[in-house]
Specification:
Distance between the termini: 57 Å
CATH class of the largest domain: Alpha Beta
Helix content: 25-40%
CATH topology of the largest domain: BirA Bifunctional Protein, domain 2
CATH architecture of the largest domain: 2-Layer Sandwich
Largest sheet: 8 strands, mixed
Structural class: alpha+beta
Amino acid sequence: MFDIRWIRENPEAFDAGLDKRGAEPLSTALIALDAKRRAAQTRAQEVQTERNRLSKEIGQAKAKGEDATEIIAQVSQSKEAQAAAESEQADAARELDEALSGIPNLPFDDVPVGPDESANVEVRRIGEPPKFDFAAKEHYEIGEALGLMDFERAAKLSGSRFVVLTGALARLERALANFMLDMHTAEFGLTEVNPPALVNDTTMYGTGQLPKFGEDLFHTEEGYWLIPTAEVPLTNMVADSIVDGDELPLRFCAMTWCFRSEAGSAGKDTRGMIRQHQFTKVEMVSVTRPENSNDELERMTGIAEEVLKRLGLAFRTVVLSTGDMGFGARKTYDIEVWLPGQDTYREISSCSNCGDFQARRMKARFRDKDEKENRFVHTLNGSGLAVGRCMIAILENYQQADGSAVIPEALRPYMAGLEKIETPGS
């Protein structure tokens, strides 16, 4: 969400930012809508001032014993005129808000400009992909052969893009989430939260999922939305509030199920667990002062990378181009883990600085003790990590020629000391 006053004062900078996003210039149209709203507001105020004057005349006329019928009629007409002006103002304000709510955030100056992922820039590459003396399998081949990953049964229960995990793989998913949460809270000071997975329209609007991306979400008959990520409830924890500046930064993390309709992804990653309707993710959210948000993005990205380092997984970190960046982000790092079965790097985390974009939608502000004015906070979010994709990476990177998969040492305390996942009974 944007400050229309800033757009009025910086129309060229606003349109230049949209151009980097591949969008058409909008400042002229938005300023015209705002002018319409302001003109109606001015008319309503002028009518109110005139009615106040007439009301005084009525009192004076009655005090003198004079007939005030004509003045009373003018007051009645002014009420109708004010109501019309206020209605026009409300309509113009609603039209302006709808227009502003559909505009993506503007990228920071250091974000690479480009139309899509081809313009992303690699920042660093950590770890060496494993080398096998056998043909590497994809995760679903390993999981199905182990008898612990069942897509056919899930399809009977729910449909496509679901999976049933059993035995050691079900435990591995739980172990991964616990490992991540323990690291985030004990070592990096994040506060663990167990938020609702069903939220209302206002909450979805606050983080930018609505109104633009409704088709990507699951909606209940009772009017709730299933969260696509814990970013939604975690970020909205500061909605409609004024945070004490001394409390910043606020850093949260949560493990939740996430739900996405995957609209528009027909034919993409149809096999396996890469792209599912329901998946588990550990999410990080930070609420900071504006001057600290860039450093916070680097810190958050480093935490997500540390998970992969401790699991011994090779990865690379890229900064997304303007054409590949999410709707609410000003800058995003994607962390891509190496998957031997696909012989490529695949996204396992996105860490984004949204600036005050979400804060304006949520009315989330802070105030220092020695200041009178409130300021909008900056919000950040990042996967820390996508649990299912982390499991995929472990199965593929630690696969053995006999079909088993070694468990990384960091996870063994969470797996009751189990060192290898094998076919049950072997």
